[in-house]
């Protein structure tokens, strides 16, 4: 059913606003707009203010380029972290996911995206030059590339590898293989092949 | 995976804002907040303004209680519409859905909800008294109840029926039965039973 004849221009504008969000269609957008009517005015103003304030005042860490409220983020300024290891990730979500594992104590480098010819994102749109500068200081001993296991991830990994080939730094990438808890028979064959190639010595 | 340790308070507040929306979990909220960073500042300000403006300036038609930018909505002020027929609906979405059918030329009455003891919504929270006043003017010849085919819809229909029983007005409800295009064998038995009870004479 086509829902497009709004009884109010204000309603239509609110629906259009929600409709700009990824994954939110016009029907859901209408439901969200009407949800706002059932909230107190102050709550709706807070909602709107939080979002525009975030967009207007967002800052990025001068060192790792992660989102940060301070010029240097909490992780980069934490002296207990291992400054010789850099983990290269695509986005803030990836930093949060790795931090949640509580297994990594080095620093990060947030690329701000991934090389993607399809989406028109080239190396110049990412913080790759800044990564090279960090490595050039000589403090970094290992760069772990924690990028998605996709063609774009592969391209980005390859490009960064070439940029860093003349530095005395160990380059690693996160392992790919069977998920923990996953049944072997349901693992796709490319993943399974890679998990055999990258088998780990147990003795 | 638990994602709750945000690298920035501003980011956290934006995520919390999106997380207040129905059907938006924390992970989607984070994705929406980061989406905002890729939009121009002006677009994000427009997004926020459209929503708070809608909440602050929303008006309801004085006659049918639908959302409207004017004191009397376009439908109620349209002299070509049949003023003797009222269609009682729960919400603005229902008005839009019925208008989209292009089959109804009467007026509406928007209840603003449905009687729902589970959600603590009683008759006093709806515009039922205003409906009775409209019927009491004598201009209305038929009240069509276009409410959901649920227990709450049934309760509301029954309550309104009682309120209007002393008026000289025809009370009808929309038909329930097999959906157009639906196969008989997949129709649930209550709907099928009702479609037989309310069978339509063809000769």
Give a short summary of the structure.
The structure is a homodimer of 203-residue chains. Chain A is of the alpha/beta class and 203 residues long.
Question: What is the topology?
Answer:
Two copies of one chain form a homodimer.
Chain A: H1 9-19, H2 26-37, H3 41-57, E1 59-60, E2 67-68, E3 82-89, H4 92-101, E4 106-110, H5 128-136, E5 142-145, H6 151-163, E6 170-173, H7 189-197
Parallel strand pairs in A: 3-4, 3-5, 5-6
Antiparallel strand pairs in A: 1-2
Helix pairs in contact in A: 1-2
Q: What keywords describe this structure?
A:
6 strands, 12% strand, 7 helices, four-stranded parallel β-sheet, homodimer
Characterize the structure shown.
Two copies of one chain form a homodimer. Chain A has helices at 9-19, 26-37, 41-57, 92-101, 128-136, 151-163, 189-197; strands at 59-60, 67-68, 82-89, 106-110, 142-145, 170-173. The termini of chain A are far apart. With 203 residues, chain A is α/β, with parallel strands linked by helices. Chain A contains seven helices and six strands; from the N terminus they run H-H-H-E-E-E-H-E-H-E-H-E-H. In chain A, helix 1 crosses helix 2 (26-37). In chain A, the strands form two sheets. The first copy, chain A, has a four-stranded parallel beta sheet. A two-stranded antiparallel sheet of chain A has the order 1-2. The longest helix of chain A has 17 residues, at 41-57.
